[in-house]
Amino acid sequence: MALAHVLGFPRIGAHRELKFAQESFWKGASDEAALRATGATLRARHWQAQADAGLDFVTVGDFAWYDQVLGTLALLGAIPSRFGFDPKQLSLADYFILARGSKQHFAMEMTKWFDTNYHYLVPEWTADVQFNGGVDWLHDEIAEARALGHKVKVALVGPLTLLYQGKIKSGLGHKLDLLPKVVAGYQQLLQRLHAAGIESVQIDEPILALELDAAWRNAFAPVYAQLNAQLSGSAPALLLTTYFGEVSEHAELLRSLPVAGVHLDLVRGADQLEQIVAGWPQDKVLSLGVVDGRNLWRTDLDQVLTKLKPLQAQLGDRLWVASSCSLLHVPVDLANESKLDEELKSWLAFATQKLAEIVALKLALNGKAAEVEAQFVASRAAQASRRSSSRIHNPLVQKRLAAVTAADAERSAGFDARIAKQQAKWQLPAFPTTTIGSFPQTAEIRQARAAYKRGEIGHLDYLDKMREEIRIVVEKQEQLGLDVLVHGEPERNDMVEYFGEQLWGYAFTANGWVQSYGSRCVKPPVIYGDVYRPEAMTVGWSQFAQTLTAKPMKGMLTGPVTMLQWSFVRDDQPRETTALQIALALRDEVCDLEKANIGMIQIDEPAFREGLPLKSRDWPHYLDWAVRAFKISAAGVGDETQIHTHMCYSEFNDILPWIAAMDADVITIETSRSDMELLDGFGEFAYPNDIGPGVYDIHSPRVPQVDEMERLLRKARGVIPDARLWVNPDCGLKTRGWPETYEALENMVLAAKRLRQTVEQERKAA
Ligand SMILES: CN1c2c(nc(N)[nH]c2=O)NC[C@@H]1CNc1ccc(C(=O)N[C@@H](CCC(=O)N[C@@H](CCC(=O)N[C@@H](CCC(=O)O)C(=O)O)C(=O)O)C(=O)O)cc1
Ligand SMILES: N[C@@H](CCS)C(=O)O
Ligand SMILES: [Zn+2]
Question: Where is Zn(2+) bound in this sequence (predicted)?
Fold first, then answer.
């Protein structure tokens, strides 16, 4: 009999209950007991959903108070020693200081989890890091689940993935130098799970979907042999999970690893099955991820069942049916969507619906097809309705796309000629200061939008409130002495959702929240059809903001790759086709902004790196269309119009040449949490256009001091010519409060002024 399970369930709650409890705790409005109670309620609810759906285990260990990688460090006791916390006595308040920083401490670095829009906290590897055991939280959660009567499978981030995803901070030549300690830590943990009677442990090793070098590849066999030897054939059985890509190059390794089973992502790596299944050992489980954990289209149950049936003959009860990866990346429950029309809703499955899909497949495999016939009928109807619906195809868009030429992607002059004209026009000081776009999204702004959405205030009142906010933001920027201003984006719920709401081909949810990092969530829109811009989206706001100041006001758009990457994307055409459709819509907006005398336009591409395929052999194709899409969106303007772009929270060094190929006049880019590591890349590749490496980390409430930012700028001057260097924060300020934002920007402007004085002194001395 096939079994059914998921690799993880979203923890934030269908109504973001965890977010509100975290934020209330951080504000001091509630205590740790209240936060813990919310966590327990959510876990209980999510386990119950899994049990009610008919899964064979509930997954414990997917919950995290902030992030699952940080949670693993806390569990193992491997928290950075620079914070001075005792790993065994770590309180929740301490744990949040690791994640968010404090007056005394920089927060841990945060970066994207593989190619998702989820951010994890980067382990800090030093020679003195310990893996001797930490908090008991996981063990308490196991007890909780059992007390509720559930059969438990524990999920852990695997030892090699944990090591790989961290960064060496000091005292180590290679991350694998830590292996003996890490393995000992996991052995200790597995023994404790064994002693608690846990029979099944899912151990996530998604790095197997990357192109690993020999040192990492070769580490798997000995590590898992050691873990297995420790368990000496007794429980818990290890299910090694791979996901986010195919792993067929490791087929032999996976067959021979001493684990009880292996999980494959068959959504991302459909073609790997044949190679891996051939000669699959008689004693190993094969868990097949057939229900998409990264998108929310309803599964074609017939198609999947057809694929699984022959395997059942081979594997029998060693076949497990699963989600492709954790369901962390999809919203919780479609039942909470009252505003989506019935047709569209019938095409979708959120996490809760995916549980039912997995169980339907299991039952159909186990000879109980009649029990789930209705689900198969609905799945069939959804596929047919999606294929034939007239709302998906727009001939206007398709015709325009077919007519795009190579010239459409090129500005009319090269960078040197453009920047000379732009400098003559704007006369900016050396090291111009600017911000990334958003200013604090205050409770007042969000409440006004909520009231407008509920119909409690009218359209004009809402516009007035947002305009008032823009007035305040412009006034503060003038007071601060910033050189290039922004309107602050108060009218945007989210930088992607806002545009999605105005474009045809996009649908948006009322409650489709997905965790992005910590307490922060996004509602990725759904691209279901050809994308078309019916009218200007931002011109009125930017025009209004420009009337308030004589300084340049940057127009503010989200770029095509990010619009794609942070949406749930249609799966019935290549991603690049959708990206180019969005690019054309944005190109029209960029040209309309120029016509409205907005002379600087920022096209944000924070997800440009995130979209990069995990395997480098797939990079050239992606980079080619992604760069092209950006350039098409930007290239309709004249030489004097300055195109900015912005990127954040990713590793950029390996793609600097392609970032340069995007040919934005100015790029602002996140660097401060990693102490400007980006600059290392400049040693090898001289970025040709203007660049603003972020000088302070906006994800931490900590206010950076002038000296710190000045130090970073001096470091930047080592590799970026003065004439090319801008001064700005790492990212938008929407998550920050006003007092800290104002103080930080005051310090930033001062740092830029000090730098100007230094340059002046150097000039005089020369
Ligand atoms: C730059 N980043 C972004 C990413 N992905 C995106 N899609 N968008 C991004 O900006 N990925 C990488 C980074 C991640 N960073 C962030 C930063 C900040 C957030 C964030 O603040 N999210 C908000 C939700 C934003 C939103 O949609 N707001 C809506 C709804 C607000 C709301 O909760 N309203 C209340 C009522 C009002 C009240 O009483 O306060 C309600 O509906 O109940 C809006 O402004 O209208 C968050 O709160 O988590 C995300 C990613
Ligand atoms: N313009 C956006 C970019 C975030 S990545 C902002 O400032 O929030
Ligand atoms: Zn950003």
Answer: 646, 648, 670, 731
- What does DSSP assign to residue 653? G
- Beta bridge partners of residue 265, listed in sequence order: 289
Mapped to the 3 state alphabet, what secondary structure does 213-234 carry? CHHHHHHHHHHHHHHHHHHCCC
ipTM: 0.95
Q: Which residues are annotated as a binding site for L-methionine?
A: 436-438, 489, 604
Q: Say yes or no to pLDDT of 232 above 80.
A: no
Contacts of 339 (CB under 8 A, 6+ apart): 509, 510
pLDDT at 673: 67
Contact 415, 689 (CB under 8 A): yes
Cα–Cα dist 745/433, whole Å: 9
**How many Cβ atoms from other residues are within 10 Å of residue 298's Cβ?**
23
**Per-residue pLDDT reduced to its tens digit, 45-77:** 999 999 999 999 999 999 999 999 999 999 999
Active site residues: 699
- CA 242 to chain CA centroid, Å, is 19
Contacts of 397 (CB under 8 A, 6+ apart): 505, 530, 531, 532, 581, 584
Report the atom number in ligand 2 closest to the C-alpha of 562: 5
Q: What is the pTM of this model?
A: 0.94
The C-alpha atoms of residue 83 and residue 233 are separated, in whole angstroms, by 39
Q: What is the dihedral of CA 101, 103, 106, 107, to 10 degrees?
A: 0
Res 236 pLDDT > 90: no
Atom of ligand 2 nearest to the CA of 556: 1
Q: What is the DSSP letter of 6?
A: -
Q: Could you give the angle at the alpha carbon of 631 between the alpha carbons of 496 and 417, nearest 5°?
A: 130
Question: Who's near 209: CB < 8 A, 6+ residues apart?
Answer: 114, 242, 243, 244, 245, 246, 247, 265, 268, 269, 614, 615
Strand partners, 558: 604
Angle between helices 32-53 and 137-147 (to 10 degrees): 50
Using DSSP's 3-state secondary structure scheme, residue 324 falls into coil
Please name the residues in contact with 714: beta carbons below 8 A apart, sequence gap of 6 or more.
Answer: 755, 758
| Cα of 475 vs its chain's centroid, Å | 33
At 679, the pLDDT band (50, 70, 90 cuts) reads: confident
**Alpha carbon 697 to its chain's center:** 17
